[in-house]
């Protein structure tokens, strides 16, 4: 992170002065909104900025937008317009002004008890009847006919206080449509939202906690951060959850990312250094349904932006960044339904049933769990071989692990260890729900054509129902190509 490196691509030697301009006073009614979406190249993130007049308090206050799909491998040049539909709002940590930050703090202090349906206040210990009611009402909203913006606004009114606390710099995760209103083939979110809004899926309130592993590389050499140039560090052993500058490379980046995600409203539940030096992990969740994908994609976006600021470090989600005796990078996906979480609804029995279904569809899942994953799932380095589905209690060499605590309590969640670090979380979460909750292909495809742009989980994305975690109140909540 030397100054000379910073000069390479972060704005020249005036980098700090340029950043300082962010703190200029802002105009009262100007909002700055960064629209994020997935491009057409296996999960490339794109974003652009729109200045809007406020107030913007919720998703429905944000207009649709468009971009040039011929530049993202998503449309032919002759008919290149792609429509962006806002789906989940977050605070923008990169443009936050001192005023934004103060608002944020005040907002949290007075955090309204208004969002009583929030999953963040609803743990497994809560009565199932109450939780079922909330979930059914979410399902009803989700499967309602297309709403125009004014109706969506009314829908948000019962949420009480504005969820963004007046913050004027925002990020918004969007999905992508043709001008005729059909989701693009790369719009995996639309397919996921459809499955999560099926009433029998929504009633099970699927929770996901995704462990995102990533590797930091020197931008010039493309070799892991802190490794001897052209050589290797001491063998794996001291690095996992390690401490000390002999072993820890890039902690400042991992920490900055963690703080930025919390500010944004992403429910990062923790972070740790990984087995391979220069490899890190953060966990998002537990989140309900499609918001797991929204939150993980926004967390990845924030990670890319944090790395941009260093001027000298890049991040890779490659499943096996260094071949040989070095751990790969995955995205273990922890998953539960209400029936798994509650013993009287099935608990461990329901988990075993789900595992059986996953076994039957192993190949389908593997094909959708990220590209290059065959380099990682070798059967070594805490992975199961790709060719065979296995599961076990506390077994880190299995495809699916059930933790000791879940086994002993007789209820809880499972961990699908197969997804690669570069997987599309919309696809992984959608497939887990589809397979384990027995969604037929017909149900999965129903309503996939036509103007369903406003159908589905807006209320979930912007009503604080996006998170099952008690630690933070969320705002925002195929493979691509
Ligand atoms: P590991 O022991 O595999 O490293 P982590 O602590 O890194 O596990 O991640 C576990 C993840 O599982 C966290 O994101 C956590 O929020 C999530 N989680 C916890 N309980 C549940 C649940 N009932 N359903 C789904 N995910 C859960
Ligand atoms: Mn972990
Ligand atoms: Mn890990
Ligand atoms: Mn894990």
Overview in brief:
With 481 residues, the chain is α+β, with helices and mostly antiparallel strands. The chain has 16 helices and 13 strands. Helix 6 (188-196) packs parallel to helix 14, helix 8 (251-264) crosses helix 9 and helix 9 (291-310) packs antiparallel against helix 14.
Describe this structure in words.
With 481 residues, this protein is an alpha+beta fold. The protein folds into two domains: 28-186, Glutamine synthetase, N-terminal domain (Ubiquitin-like (UB roll)); 203-474, Creatine Kinase, Chain A, domain 2 (2-Layer Sandwich). The chain has 16 helices and 13 strands. Strands 6, 7, 8, 9, 10, 11, 12 and 13 form an eight-stranded mixed beta sheet that branches. The site of one manganese (II) ion has 4 residues, from strand 6.
Name its key features.
single chain; 481 residues; alpha+beta; 2 domains; 16 helices; 13 strands; 18% strand; disordered N terminus; binds manganese (II) ion
Oligomer: single chain
The sequence of SSEs as H and E is HHEEEEHHHEHHEHEEHEEHHHEEHEHHH
What ligands does this structure carry? adenosine-5'-diphosphate, manganese (II) ion
Cα shape: globular
List the uncertain runs. 1-7, 109-161, 450-467, 469-481
Q: What percentage of the residues does DSSP assign to strands (E)?
A: 15-25%
Tally of alpha and pi helices? 16
* Mean of residue pLDDT values: 82
Q: Please outline the major beta sheet.
A: 8 strands, mixed
Radius of gyration: 22 Å
The CATH first-level class of the largest domain comes to: Alpha Beta
Indicate the percent of residues in helices. 25-40%
Distance between the termini: 34 Å
The count of β-strands is 13
Question: Can you identify the CATH superfamily of the largest domain?
Answer: Glutamine synthetase/guanido kinase, catalytic domain
CATH architectural name of the largest domain: 2-Layer Sandwich
CATH topology of the largest domain: Creatine Kinase, Chain A, domain 2
Number of domains: 2
């Amino acid at each position: 992170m030397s100054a000379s490196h910073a000069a390479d691509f972060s704005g020249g030697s005036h980098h700090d002065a340029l950043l300082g301009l962010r703190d200029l006073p802002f105009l009262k009614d100007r909002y700055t909104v960064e629209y994020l979406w997935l491009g057409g190249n296996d999960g490339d993130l794109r974003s652009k900025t729109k200045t809007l007049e406020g107030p913007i308090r919720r998703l429905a206050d944000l207009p649709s937008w468009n971009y040039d799909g011929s530049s993202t491998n998503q449309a032919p040049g002759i008919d290149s317009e792609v429509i962006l539909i806002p789906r989940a709002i977050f605070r923008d940590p990169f443009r936050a002004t001192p005023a934004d930050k103060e608002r944020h703090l005040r907002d949290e202090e007075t955090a309204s008890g208004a969002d009583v349906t929030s999953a963040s206040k609803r743990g497994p210990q809560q009565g199932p009847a109450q939780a079922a009611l909330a979930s059914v009402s979410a399902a009803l909203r989700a499967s309602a006919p297309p709403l125009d913006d004014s109706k969506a606004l009314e829908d948000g009114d019962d949420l009480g206080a504005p969820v963004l606390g007046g913050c004027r710099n925002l990020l918004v995760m969007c999905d992508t449509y043709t001008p005729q209103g059909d989701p693009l083939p790369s719009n995996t979110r639309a397919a996921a939202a459809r499955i999560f809004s099926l009433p029998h899926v929504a009633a099970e309130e699927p929770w996901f906690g995704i462990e995102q592993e990533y590797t930091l590389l020197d931008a010039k050499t493309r070799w892991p951060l802190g490794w001897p140039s052209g050589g290797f560090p001491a063998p794996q052993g001291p690095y996992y959850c390690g401490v000390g500058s002999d072993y820890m490379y890039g902690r400042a980046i991992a920490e900055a990312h963690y703080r930025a995600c919390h500010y944004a409203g992403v429910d990062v539940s923790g972070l740790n250094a990984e087995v391979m030096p220069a490899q890190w992990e953060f966990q998002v969740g537990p989140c309900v349904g499609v918001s797991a994908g929204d939150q993980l994609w926004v967390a990845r976006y924030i990670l890319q932006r944090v790395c941009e600021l260093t001027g000298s470090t890049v991040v890779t989600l490659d499943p096996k960044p260094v071949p040989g005796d070095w751990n790969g990078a995955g995205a273990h996906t922890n998953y539960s339904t209400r029936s798994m979480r509650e013993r009287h609804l099935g608990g461990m029995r329901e988990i075993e049933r789900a595992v059986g279904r996953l076994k039957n569809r192993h190949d389908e899942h593997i094909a959708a769990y990220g590209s290059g994953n065959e380099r990682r799932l070798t059967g070594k380095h805490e992975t199961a071989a790709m060719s065979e589905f296995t599961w076990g209690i506390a077994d880190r060499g299995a495809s699916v692990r059930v933790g000791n605590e879940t086994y002993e309590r007789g209820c809880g969640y499972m961990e699908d260890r197969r997804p690669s670090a570069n997987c599309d979380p919309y696809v992984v979460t959608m497939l887990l729900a589809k397979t384990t909750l027995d969604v037929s292909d017909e149900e999965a495809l129903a309503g996939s054509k036509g103007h369903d742009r406003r159908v589905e989980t807006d209320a979930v994305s912007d009503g604080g129902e996006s998170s099952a975690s008690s630690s933070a109140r969320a705002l925002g909540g195929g493979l691509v190509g």
